[in-house]
Amino acid sequence: MTTQVHSTARTWIDLEDNALFNYAGPFDGKTQNFLAPAAFCMIRRRKWRPEHATVVIGGGMQIATSSFHFYNHNLISEVRVVF
């Protein structure tokens, strides 16, 4: 599940909820849940036209919200090139 709020025309914040269900293995039946707040910024040329590429950069942190988790507070970075 994801929720996004556009703060300006080129920036937005995002809150994502991720779940991981383990089947088989030593952690069979255990569930991990994470919340990942992030911020994104769109970069494009001043004389942008639809045939030009747009770059979106973002970053956030994955925070464990379940009592069972392998990791916690992981930094996330992302770069997208949109055509």
Key terms:
5-stranded antiparallel beta sheet; 83 residues; elongated; mainly beta
Question: Can you tell me about this structure?
Answer:
The protein has strands at residues 2-6, 11-21, 31-43, 54-64, 74-82. With 83 residues, it is mainly beta. It has one domain (2-82). A 5-stranded antiparallel sheet has the order 1-2-3-4-5, with no helix packed on it. Strand 1 and strand 2 (11-21) form a beta hairpin. The two termini are 25 Å apart.
Describe the main β-sheet briefly: 5 strands, antiparallel
The largest beta-sheet arranges its strands as: 1-2-3-4-5
Number of beta strands: 5
Q: Give helix and strand order, one letter per element, not per position.
A: EEEEE
Q: Provide mean pLDDT, rounded.
A: 90
Low-pLDDT regions: none
- In whole angstroms, the N-to-C terminal distance is 25 Å
Query: Beta-strand percentage?
Result: over 45%
In terms of quaternary structure, the protein is single chain
The dominant shape is elongated
Structural class: mainly beta
What is the element layout, followed by pairings?
Blueprint: E1 2-6, E2 11-21, E3 31-43, E4 54-64, E5 74-82
Antiparallel strand pairs: 1-2, 2-3, 3-4, 4-5
